[in-house]
Amino acid sequence: MTRLLASLALFLALGTTASAAVPSWGAKQSSPADTPPSSLKPGEWIWGGAPMAPGPMAVIVSLTEQKAYAYRNGILVGVTTVSTGKKGHETPTGVFTILQKDKDHKSNVYNAAPMPYQQRLTWDGVALHAGGLPGYPESHGCVHMPTEFAKLLFAATNMGMTVVVAEEGTAPVTVVHPSAVIPIDPRNGKDLAVAPLMNGEMYSWNPDASPTGPISMVLSVPDQRVIVLRNGIEIGRAKVEVSNPLVGTHAYIVSQGYMANSPTREGLRMPNWITIGIPGHGDEAGKVVDEALADRVAAPREFMEKILPELKPGDVLLATDERILPSTTGPKVQVIDSNPPERAP
């Protein structure tokens, strides 16, 4: 009888644990960084951002695409499929900030339903959190995300972070279909109206737009452009030419010290760079960039004279074979940041 009661108690305990277990939704691991968001299936996601990397963070939720885009210091670090509010419970559009974070939140309205990694957008029940992902809007207003993505995003964000919820017809196409470069001001969610280079103009430089903070750069081979962002705000762009470009997306981080001068950079001090291993290209992590690779990129000398003195260890450059200019950007983009190696080999 004692053994029977003990077995019964164990069965009840296991049953209670199972019934109280929080479900897990979506893929367990990131898809490769080169995966076009348009080809992500329900529950799939990409993440390449360091949880506590420098620079402001912002999230754009595209109701039209049923996807969310996470940006750190102006460049894309994550994208995921989502499920937003169904008819009668539509997720509101607009600019929000994170009001509350609760890793183990349970609904106050829907029978204590689990809402793991909740990040509240409104006090009347709209939040980002892990949840069901059928491939279409089915929530009661919240933005459902894959569990592992929601966990990574929760660790990376701060209270007050900007979240923009956009939909076709209510926001610019650059926000509804975001690219690898942030289309909003991460401080307030307003659309960024950045003037393109005019005919005959080789570069633009406006460091006063964001005087301090970490720098990120995105180089698009087909657009022949490099865009420089500081603290999430564009401070410059230039026309570039790339010879024998690498295929796909490759990320680099500024290291300590400088390369020796080369004929194409005579008189300029080019910092050392280390390759970052983004999802799908982990074997590249930690490789030191040699001068031969750096010399494949030709930019206006005046622009190089302005940007090189600004670069500090930890600043990031992303080179991609995807387009990033608004006139050429569609829904296909790539994640372009990742955890930097701890040190050069």
Helical content stands at 10-25%
The radius of gyration over CA amounts to 22 Å
Strand content bin: 25-35%
Which oligomerization state do the chains in this entry correspond to?
single chain
Per DSSP, the total helix count is: 5
Let me know the average pLDDT: 85
Low-confidence stretches: 1-19, 328-334, 336-345
The dominant shape is elongated
- Describe the sheet with the most strands: 7 strands, mixed
Termini gap: 64 Å
Please count the beta strands (DSSP E, at least 2 residues each): 19
What is the ordering of alpha helices and beta strands?
Answer: HEEEEEEEEEHEHEEEEEEEHEHE
The structural class is: alpha+beta
Strand order of the largest sheet: 11-14-13-12-19-16-17
Structure description:
- This protein has 345 residues and is α+β, with helices and mostly antiparallel strands.
- 13% of the residues lie in helices and 29% in strands.
- It contains five helices and 19 strands.
- The longest helix is centred in the N-terminal third of the chain and has 19 residues, at 2-20.
- Mean pLDDT is 85; it is low at 1-19, 328-334 and 336-345.
